[in-house]
Amino acid sequence: MTDAPVRTDAEPRNAIDRFFEITRRGSSFAAEIRGGVVTFVTMAYIVILNPIILSSGTDIDGSQLDFVQLSAVTGLTAAVMTILFGLVARLPFGFAAGLGINAFLAFSVVGEVTWPEAMGLVVINGLIIVLLSATGLRRMIFDAVPMQLKIAITVGIGLFIAFIGFVNAGFVTAAASPPVALGVGGSVATVPTLLFVITLLLTGVLVARRVKGGILIGLVSGTVLAVIVEAIWHIGAKADDNPGGWGLSVPALPEQLVSLPDLSLVGQFDLFGGFGRIGALAALMLVFTLVFTNFFDAMGTMTGLAKEADLADERGNFPRLKSALIVEGVGAVVGGATSSSSNTVFVESGAGISEGARTGFANLVTGGLFLIAMFFTPLVSIVPTEVAAAALVIVGALMMSQIRFIDLTDFSALFGVFLTVSVMPMTYSIANGIGAGFIGWVAARAFSGKAKEISPLLWIVAAGFVIYFARGPVEMLLS
Fold first, then answer.
1. Which residues, 6 or more positions from 445, have their beta carbon under 8 angstroms from its beta carbon?
2. In terms of CB atoms within 10 Å, which end of the chain has fewer, N or C?
3. Which residues, in sequence order, are bridge partners of residue 97?
4. pTM here?
């Protein structure tokens, strides 16, 4: 971390310097530009990864979102929200589609509703977060949840994302007994899966060596190798007569590298359609899970980044905290409205901070680069699922590293943490993991003589999840 103490006596050089407090925070225009570029490089993989995840989800009507259109709106929304956050909160935190929520949408929510209806629920989730942030309730709820559970949610989502990566790569496959197996016949038997392994190892080494943009370099390198392999051996797409083919897209160079972004997905959301399709109770529980998943991770990330930038006090408060939380809620609204999924602050912003970024001016640089990236969306279509899956596993590993902050010596705490972390990947549902963890935490703590340590808000949340798990019978009784 680069130290950058606040210099209250520093004179700003111009109006831009004064607005962003660049000199006052011990930074410079050169440092802000450099930090903004580095943040973009470390975040750029989301323009590929978000479409991979969202386009994998088939909704209740059998529809899927278009890969190239998703890439365009992912870049657009990341640009808009990163720039907006920089102007309003004036902090160097980049925004893009959150990996936890997009997985929840693709593999859980759209099993019950259509894609427009799912994005409508995301918009409602964002509006609730804005309201909670504006009234101060968001901070109160955040403080009520034990730190162990906050971290467990991040770890569980990490394992879930990694499991999705292994499945998408064909490294883990469904079987009769046991229910899952390694590859085909217990071994890596296809070229695409082999390229997944190569990309995973390469990316892992790059990240381990702290190479800036390691995930993006791994994705690009794996894709180039896949294009070469396809050009030589013509593997083709996976089919009944070609089980060893590429899963989602065949890696081949497009006819054109640059094109106008296809923004057809903007505005394709149905605000209340989900309530009519699955009922108010079930829809509200999905919204509740979205809200819960959305704001705990974001608040923890922002606090950590502010500390890294030497902008937070001993209680974790940082400049324009309330404004930052409100804009983060707006990210969910905008993400749902553009069908790119809820946008939130990215922990990769720490790379830009380490390069000297201390103000929102760095966000203008990062956001501008995301706008440029929209015009290169044809390139993303050549990234095979198997290569992108390696990035999913790496991101999962990075998220799992947070487990080191959990005290596992007290079983009354470990029980809820374990349920959260294990149920998510095992049931292929983030909602199930969060719910099981909260119920397990409250039950174990309450009946081990620690009921007084449980916040009343936590009791309410756990009760809500009991209803969530029993929503089928409850809906039958209510109807």
1. 412, 413, 416, 451, 453, 454
2. C
3. 343
4. 0.71
